[in-house]
Amino acid sequence: MKKSLLLIIAISTSISLSAQTFSSFHDFSGATILGDSIDFTIFHGKKVMVVNTASLCGYTHQYTDLQELYANYQQYDFEIIGFPCNDFSNQEPGYDSTIYDFCQSYNVTFQMMSKIATVSADTVPVYKWLQRADLNGVQDVSVSWNFNKFLIDEAGHWVRHYDAPTNPLDTAITNWIMSPSVLSVEDNLRLTNLSVFPNPASGRVNFSYQLLTPEVVTNTLTDITGRVVYSETQLKSAGLIKSSVDLAANSLSAGVYLINIKVAGQIFTEKLVILE
Fold first, then answer.
1. Distance (Å, whole) CA 88 – CA 245
2. Does residue 100 contact residue 35 with C-beta atoms inside 8 Å?
3. Helix, strand, or coil (residue 215)
4. Residue ranges per structural domain of the chain
5. Whole-angstrom Cα distance, residue 110 to residue 116?
6. Architecture of the CATH domain 25-177
7. How many CA atoms lie within 13 A of 91 on its CB side?
8. Tens-place pLDDT, residues 162-210
9. How many CA atoms lie within 13 Å of 1's alpha carbon, on the beta-carbon side?
10. DSSP letters of 28-70?
11. Overall pTM surpassing 0.70 (yes/no)
């Protein structure tokens, strides 16, 4: 069956702050459920979902969906951070150790933090930032129940809030995860001029990009579900880099695919649509 190819360019955009200076998600730190401390600067360059969790809630089943979301999209520089809380109807009465054991029953592998109070006046600083427009620069939000979800972009900006009924696998969330990074080329100073062009005559998809410095680069081609159909990791010299993927050899059928170039902790994406 002959296939034609349609290239859809995903254009990266950058976000600039207003004259007033607001703190970033990356300015905070916290205690993990295992008693360690992590600095949220480690999430620079990644999209993040922050969610308050509970073990005895009607929405506790969302642990399954959260873990599925994390398993499918972690490779695209996406992280989930769970904060257990007992703010609503005594639905998280346990200690960190019992909460940790409970999470293992859901095979949770994303980052769980130490139990906190999310709605009290003395809540941890990051939850003040999540709920107050005068701190996050975007919107006032009151956490109203367990499994409220906050989205944070690669630069640490507050993006969106979803309440408990919104499923973690909602397409609005997955589409956001796969949207282009808000970090511009100037922000990372690593890679420029990513371009992709199909060559139906040879049955290959060629892509090229310009590296400003020598870097270890991972080229990955996935289908829209996140299944990896091609991947390579190599140390690349500075300059124009050219790569290609053989459509037939990788059994690419009609559908939507994503070409991802990961370099220096950043990911650059182009969308490729193969039509029958």
1. 51
2. no
3. strand
4. 25-177, 184-275
5. 17
6. 3-Layer(aba) Sandwich (3.40)
7. 17
8. 999 999 999 999 999 998 877 653 344 344 445 555 555 556 777 777 7
9. 8
10. -EEEBTTS-EEEGGGGTTSEEEEEEE-SSSTTTTHHHHHHHHH
11. no
Does 57 participate in catalysis according to the annotation?
yes
User: How many angstroms separate the CA atoms of 55 and 97, rounded?
Assistant: 13
Dump pLDDT digits (tens) for 21-79.
Answer: 457 898 899 999 999 998 898 888 889 999 999 999 999 999 999 999 999 999 998 99
Q: Does 184-275 carry CATH code 2.60.40.3080?
A: yes
Q: What is the dihedral of CA 199, 200, 205, 207, to 10 degrees?
A: 20
Eight-class DSSP state of 101: H
Q: Residue 86, Cβ neighbours under 10 Å: how many?
A: 19
Both structure tokens of 161: 């809030």
Q: How many residues does the chain have?
A: 276
User: Residue 267 forms beta bridges with which residues?
Assistant: 262
CB-based contacts of 202, cutoff 8 Å, min separation 6: none
Catalytic residue among 49, 51, 54, 57: 57
Q: Is residue 84 a contact partner of residue 113, using CB atoms and an 8 Å limit?
A: yes
